[in-house]
TrEMBL record, chains A, B:
UniProt keyword list: DNA-binding
DNA-binding region: 29-48
Pfam short name (any one): TetR_N
InterPro entries referenced in this protein's UniProt entry, alphabetically: Homeodomain-like_sf, HTH-type_Tx_Regulator, HTH_TetR, Tet_transcr_reg_TetR-rel_C_sf, Tscrpt_reg_YsiA_C
One Gene Ontology molecular-function label: DNA binding
The keyword DNA-binding is annotated on this UniProt entry: yes
Record keyword Translocase present: no
Protein name: Fatty acid degradation regulator YsiA
Residue intervals of the HTH tetR-type domain: 6-66
Region forming the signal peptide: none
Length: 193, 193
């Protein structure tokens, strides 16, 4: 995409994130998103097929960036323990700093149709695979027990992280999410050894 | 409620569970539920205000029974370790044996409005509190480390269990859920000590 086009595409996604976080997916008409982005309604259709397409693109771009960030950070770690801590830090820090994204991923995402959820599941998959890879690395490094059920454990870890974020949001963000990293990682690391 | 009335109330809830599991909450018109229950549309309104009310009642009755089952089973255990294993066993066994309930709790529940989710959250709360109580008992019994963050850890455990059930459903129930109990409990117990 040429840079002018890319800029508009980005502006629409950023506007959609804000509008969906404030009004819910069902209450976010294309016209509202266009108004927030400062473009004509028709312009949206130059970039996206429909509202579902905006939501999927939003996940691809924003969660895609998060997964890239995870992958980058994990590269700089030496052990699986450090990698797992990095993952937890980024997961909690990024969503704490980007409440709109947190709201859309934890609440709106879950309200979408099964079809949409399958599409979004594909975006989340590389993250689950990264956790799997870290667990494999940990077994290889003889840090984690060799009978660890990796396919099951990656779900236990992902589900645990996910629930902490959702609960923090629903409870009105009354405490710091990033302050939960140490105790969360401690629980995981003991569980893995 | 008189027993005839109670019977009809139960029949409508059972029909609603089946219809919602097959058609999704949004695709489950009152008329479909009435047909499945073998009653007139108007009869539904003698028992429920609207479709939302049916969904909330369904959760109160079915999840309520599950929580009662959890509480009963935990009474027969001597240690927090045994209680946690019981919770995990019941969670996985009951949802494996009642796929409609699993589908409605894991998929349809998440698609409902924030208002509905708050109501449903109240039904789930006693379950989260039971996990909290087991963790407290474990610390008292000196089985779990005394610096355990109980409020955080109950979320880690609930989220982990929840994710395993959702993933099992979405992947098309290709494996046994109850076969995951041992490895799941092992991860938790190591994490707690």
């Amino acid at each position: 995409m040429a840079s002018r086009k890319l800029e508009k595409y980005e502006m629409i996604l950023e506007a959609a994130l804000k509008v969906i976080a404030e009004n819910g997916f069902h209450g976010s008409q294309i016209s509202k998103i266009a108004k927030e982005a400062g473009v004509a309604d028709g312009t949206i259709y130059l970039y996206f097929k429909n509202k579902e397409d905006i939501l999927i693109s939003l996940f691809q771009e924003r969660l895609g960036s998060l997964v890239a960030l995870f992958n980058e950070s994990v590269k700089d770690t030496n052990t699986a323990d450090e990698a797992l801590r990095k993952v937890c830090e980024i997961h909690f820090n990024e969503l704490e700093q980007n409440v709109n994204l947190a709201y859309v991923t934890q609440i709106e995402l879950r309200q979408s149709s099964l079809e949409l959820r399958v599409a979004i599941g594909l975006v989340v998959k590389p993250y689950i695979q990264l956790i799997e890879h870290i667990l494999e690395q940990g077994v290889e490094q003889q840090l984690y027990r060799k009978d660890l059920d990796i396919k099951l454990t990656r779900l236990l870890i992902f589900g645990a992280l996910d629930e902490v974020v959702t609960s923090w949001l629903i409870s009105g963000r009354k405490y710091s999410l990033s302050a939960q990293v140490d105790k969360t990682v401690e629980f995981f690391l003991k569980g893995l050894k």
